[in-house]
Design brief:
Multidrug efflux transporter AcrB transmembrane fold, mainly alpha
């Protein structure tokens, strides 16, 4: 008597998770390499740290809402990888831009960070919410296809909302800790 293994779902799930991690690492490296020449390695490091932070928070929310990790959930995360970095990049790029403006002379770095983050807030919110709204109609697809696609409208908007949170809370904090700014001009305080 013998047996033949025709399907091993555990092995296939493990391969899918390993592929997600592989693509995550590739995405982070590509983002870092693209940002380094334009913003600098410290700014790139802030965005690089933000990506796994966003995915970890999104996975935590999925766990708290009793979602399972399946192929479609993994696809939703792969789909959102390109979208979730946008908010952190926008915040860090604007902080970088504001650091080099003449009107920023005499300001503390924390003031520059707050002003830069406030400046791009409304447009970043609208752009992110618009992308979130494009995913929601998939939740209303019925039948077998609706059940198959359900993780996409559940996870992608959550990942995008988390990316906004990380961009507004953690990216400025990491910028304050990691980016070097010459505050020697602080002695000339603005009135």
């Amino acid at each position: 008597m013998g047996y033949i293994v025709t399907r091993n779902y555990g092995e296939r799930a493990n391969e899918a998770v390993n592929e997600l991690v592989h693509h995550l690492v590739l995405t982070i490296l590509i983002i870092a390499l693209i940002l380094i020449p334009f913003l600098g390695w410290r700014e790139s490091l802030v965005v690089t740290i933000a990506v796994p932070m966003i995915l970890a928070l999104t996975l935590f929310i999925a766990l708290m809402t009793d979602q399972t990790i399946n192929r479609i959930t993994l696809f939703a995360f792969l789909l959102s990888l390109g979208l979730i970095v946008d908010d952190a990049i926008i915040v860090i790029e604007n902080i970088h831009r504001r650091m080099h403006l003449p009107e920023s002379k005499g300001l503390k770095f924390s003031e520059i960070i707050i002003e830069a983050t406030d400046e791009i807030g409304p447009s970043t919110n609208i752009a992110t919410i618009a992308i979130m709204l494009t995913m929601i109609p998939m939740a209303f697809v019925g039948g077998m296809m609706g059940q198959f696609m359900k993780p996409i409208p559940l996870n992608v908007p959550v990942a995008l909302a988390v990316s906004l949170f990380v961009a507004y809370v953690f990216a400025p904090y990491l910028a304050r800790k990691l980016i070097k700014f010459d505050e020697s001009s602080e002695s000339e305080e603005k009135p």
